[in-house]
């Protein structure tokens, strides 16, 4: 169960504000009311009004005024001693909040799907670093489902995903377009195929695949469903990284479906062959964030991406 409030709401309204407590402590340190006003950036009438308000709340005199200036009464000295701990804690809280504001301004936490993290974000982050050399950027590469989870939990400021739909619980923006390619090793029977592989045949073929939570696999399954194909058969291999899928396909384990960004070099150098298919495998890449407006650093990176 949630813990109860440490102070009753009605009692909160009877506690002097921090500035009033600071006035009391300043008088206790030997300053006059006029000096206390100057130290705190207040007018003398405002300081006098605060003292009177505290005295009404306490039901007794806290500051004695005389021809030689002002000084605390015994009751005022007691309240000033109590105020010491409150004001010290308030100073620590203010410093902590300032540190958080500083961290937010000088740190950017990013999570991205493997395709975006490996092939697009490096150039975006290089431009960001050149424009903001004092900002520390951290990047975690993970599948799209985990990116969305990290953004939802607030453990990262900005995410990049490649799934077929926009996450309902997050704000998002399309930042690029991509296309998946069906690729095989040169010795595979599909390598010399001249007619497109139908959606049903692709769904019925055991592929080298990423894990189910990956954006690439989710998009393939959505594209096959849109083309009227049955549910895909289980993969021949299920691997957790793009590089592992590429390596397995190159070794002849079976056809794989990967971003053209990930296999461009393999296709150019003949290690893999792209197979024509009768399925639309184009997709959108999205940036996702949790709040209505992302923070300043995240907004700046989005402007570079756009």
What does this protein structure show overall?
It is a single chain. The protein contains 13 helices and eleven strands. The chain has 306 residues and is an alpha/beta fold. The strands form three sheets. Strands 3, 4, 5, 6, 9, 10 and 11 form a seven-stranded mixed sheet that branches. It has a two-stranded antiparallel ribbon with strand order 1-2. Strands 7-8 form a two-stranded parallel sheet. The longest helix has 33 residues, at 74-106.
What are the salient characteristics of this protein?
306 residues, alpha/beta, Arc Repressor Mutant, subunit A, D-Maltodextrin-Binding Protein, domain 2, 7-stranded mixed beta sheet, two-stranded antiparallel sheet, 47% helix, rod-shaped, LysR_subst-bd
Low-confidence residue ranges: none
> In one word, what is the shape?
rod-shaped
Helix-and-strand structural type: alpha/beta
User: What composes the largest sheet?
Assistant: 7 strands, mixed
Number of domains in the coordinates?
A: 2
Q: In sequence order, what are the helices and strands, one letter per element?
A: HHHHEEHEHHEHEEHEHEHEHEEH
On the 0-100 scale, what is the average pLDDT? 87
Radius of gyration: 32 Å
Number of helices in the DSSP assignment: 13
- The CATH topology of the largest domain comes to D-Maltodextrin-Binding Protein, domain 2
In the CATH hierarchy, what is the class of the largest domain? Alpha Beta
What CATH architecture label of the largest domain applies?
Answer: 3-Layer(aba) Sandwich
Beta strand %: 15-25%
Q: Report the span from N to C terminus.
A: 46 Å
* Number of distinct beta strands: 11
Q: Roughly how much helix do the residues carry, as a percent range? A: 40-55%
Keywords: DNA-binding, Transcription, Transcription regulation
Pfam families: HTH_1 (PF00126), LysR_substrate (PF03466)
Family: Belongs to the LysR transcriptional regulatory family.
Protein name: LysR substrate-binding domain-containing protein
């Amino acid at each position: 169960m949630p813990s109860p409030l440490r102070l009753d709401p009605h009692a909160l309204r009877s506690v002097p504000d921090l500035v009033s407590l600071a006035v009391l402590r300043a008088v206790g340190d030997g300053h006059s009311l006029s000096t206390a006003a100057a130290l705190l950036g207040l007018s003398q009438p405002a300081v006098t009004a605060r003292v009177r308000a505290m005295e009404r709340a306490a039901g007794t005199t806290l500051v004695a005024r005389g021809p030689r200036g002002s000084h605390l009464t015994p009751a005022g000295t007691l309240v000033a001693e109590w105020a010491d701990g409150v004001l010290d804690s308030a100073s620590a809280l203010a410093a902590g909040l300032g540190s958080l504001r500083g961290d937010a301004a000088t740190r950017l936490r990013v999570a991205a799907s493997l395709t975006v993290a490996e092939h697009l974000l490096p150039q975006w982050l290089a431009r960001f670093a050149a424009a903001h050399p004092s900002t520390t950027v951290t990047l975690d590469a993970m599948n799209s489902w985990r990116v969305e989870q990290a953004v939802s939990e607030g453990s990262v400021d900005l995410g990049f995903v490649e799934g077929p739909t926009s996450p309902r619980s997050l704000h998002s923006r399309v930042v690029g377009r991509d296309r998946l390619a069906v690729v095989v090793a040169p010795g595979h029977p599909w390598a010399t195929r001249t007619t497109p592989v139908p959606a049903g045949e692709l769904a019925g073929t055991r592929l080298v695949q990423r894990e189910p939570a990956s954006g690439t696999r989710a998009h393939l399954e959505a594209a096959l469903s849109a083309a009227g194909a049955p549910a895909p058969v289980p993969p021949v291999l299920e691997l957790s990284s793009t590089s592992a899928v590429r390596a397995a396909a190159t070794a002849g384990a079976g056809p794989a479906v990967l971003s053209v960004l990930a296999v461009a070099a393999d296709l150019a150098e003949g290690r893999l062959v792209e197979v024509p298919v009768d399925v639309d495998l184009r997709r959108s890449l999205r940036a996702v964030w949790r709040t209505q407006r992302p923070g300043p650093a995240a907004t700046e990176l989005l402007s570079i991406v756009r």
